[in-house]
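Narrative of accomplishments. A recurring question from our advisory board has been how the design workflow behaves on a single, concrete structure rather than in aggregate. To address it, we present the structure tokens for one chain from the evaluation set, followed by the sequence designed for it. No filtering or post-editing was applied between the two.
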């Protein structure tokens, strides 16, 4: 292959130019690179409005970085990628590996279609510091428990960030391009600024401010103590390796704790890589026998944040207002759906995927399974969150609840977690102590040896 034959860089979950291993690899093969993105309905249709709107913003930002040279096409990737590559006489298509179930299937088809035209396919790097599937136990089995995975992940280490940027190659003028469709309506929802620059700005702001107190504050939904990087990591506006490199050598409690959270993201992706069916099915098949309710009205009240449990309602309304919810509250609302309302985890997981700007199949489905007790390394089913005491503990002044539940604004301090007879605010829809008992009985019925 001569360095003059152009190549295609097909962007998917790597919408950035910095620290881009696939771009670096492409640049070694050719100076002339066509930047391509395929609008694929198979992925876009099931995504909720916040995620699609954020993606559109990231594509616009990437196009600007490329001086308007992002080729945008719409359709089946197995046809569109081949057409784009042939239109410029490309020798190869370069990508970052997509390790999710759909991405893997799609890429097999695209690779096959390219091979029919003698166009090479090269995968370099992924959306993770260590590509899912790489870390296994010494006997080759995947890890099922987080802590040993984490130790192995740290021991393995990760490559240095790739030194890349817009000027590393000459971007080929797209032979054609479609216009980005109109973004879906967000009904007043405000999303973070999209794109690579915004991601890095947010990260640097966090490093200068909240990193030090991250470990203490990360469980406090009333404080802005976390990175808010999840949507950027979802679309690859920043690579986790860049973030880990900035934390290197920092053994402070904040940096240590944050490394652990990045590792959870990698752990869930690893689990999904080994067991793709767990996106839909219980990881622990004993849970297939769990008795669930089917109660549309209860589900609706949960979705709308009208359960009468203030921390649950605040979380669900934060999701509707911002397309994001604090991690501690995600755990509380998920536990409430599964263990107080006895609804199946996948119902809540689907709703989250529709509303989260950071909706990510691996992190979402496996966190839901973790809460439901059916996942790997699951929180034991019998550990059932009490939504009121959780609220009092993690939102001690009631500030978070009052921020998202206007009906409770007149209730002072901690009392916001136990409102009594507040106008327009519903009474608790269930008796938690009773439902806890029901959950334990149902669990007892399926629990094997
Ligand atoms: P920070 O606390 O700043 O953490 C930094 C990064 O670490 C996050 O951006 C994220 O990439 C990763 N991370 C942190 N906690 C977790 C975790 N428990 N599991 C996996 N990765 C983690 N995260 C998603 O990115 N997408 C989802 O669809 C998603 N669904 C979830 C569903 C449930 C029921 C639960 C309990 C958690 C879910 N999470 C999901 C994990 C977590 O809530 C979010 O990653 C986090 O709240 C994002 O905010 P942040 O970027 O400020 O996090």
């Amino acid at each position: 292959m001569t360095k003059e034959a152009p190549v295609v860089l097909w962007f998917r979950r790597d919408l950035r130019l910095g620290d881009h291993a696939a771009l670096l690899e492409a640049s070694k093969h050719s100076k002339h690179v066509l930047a391509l993105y395929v609008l694929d309905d198979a992925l876009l249709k099931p995504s909720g409005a916040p995620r699609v709107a954020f993606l559109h913003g990231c594509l616009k930002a990437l196009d600007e970085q490329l001086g308007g040279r992002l080729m945008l096409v719409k359709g089946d990737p197995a046809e569109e990628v081949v057409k784009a590559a042939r239109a410029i006489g490309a020798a190869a298509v370069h990508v970052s590996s997509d390790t999710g179930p759909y991405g893997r299937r799609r890429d097999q088809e695209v690779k096959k279609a390219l091979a029919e035209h003698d166009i090479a396919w090269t995968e370099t790097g992924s959306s993770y510091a260590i590509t899912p599937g790489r870390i296994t136990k010494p006997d080759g089995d995947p890890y099922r428990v987080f802590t040993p995975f984490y130790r192995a992940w740290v021991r393995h280490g990760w490559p240095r960030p790739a030194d890349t940027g817009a000027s590393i190659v000459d971007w080929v003028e797209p032979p054609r391009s479609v216009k980005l469709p109109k973004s879906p309506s967000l009904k007043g929802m405000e999303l973070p600024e999209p794109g690579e620059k915004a991601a890095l700005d947010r990260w640097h702001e966090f490093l200068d401010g909240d990193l030090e107190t991250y470990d203490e504050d990360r469980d406090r939904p009333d404080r802005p103590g976390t990175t808010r990087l999840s949507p950027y990591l979802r679309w690859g506006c920043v690579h986790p390796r860049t973030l880990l490199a900035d934390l290197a050598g920092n053994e402070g409690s904040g940096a240590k704790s944050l490394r652990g959270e990045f590792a959870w993201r990698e752990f869930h992706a690893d689990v999904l890589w080994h067991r793709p069916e767990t996106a839909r099915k219980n990881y622990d098949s004993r849970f297939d026998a769990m008795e669930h309710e089917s109660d549309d009205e209860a589900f609706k009240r949960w979705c709308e944040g009208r359960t009468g449990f203030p921390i649950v309602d605040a979380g669900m309304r934060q999701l509707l207002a911002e397309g994001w919810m604090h991690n501690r509250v995600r755990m509380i609302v998920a536990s409430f759906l599964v263990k107080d309302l006895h609804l199946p985890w996948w119902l809540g997981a689907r709703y989250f995927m529709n509303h989260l700007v950071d909706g990510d199949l691996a992190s979402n489905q496996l966190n839901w399974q973790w809460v439901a007790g059916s996942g790997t390394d699951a929180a034991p089913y019998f550990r059932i969150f009490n939504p009121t005491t959780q609220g009092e503990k993690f939102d001690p002044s009631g500030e978070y609840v009052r921020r998202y539940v206007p009906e409770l604004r007149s209730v002072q301090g901690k009392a916001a977690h136990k409102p009594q007879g507040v106008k327009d605010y519903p009474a608790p829809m269930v008796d938690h102590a009773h439902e806890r008992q029901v959950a334990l009985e149902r669990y007892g019925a399926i629990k094997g040896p």
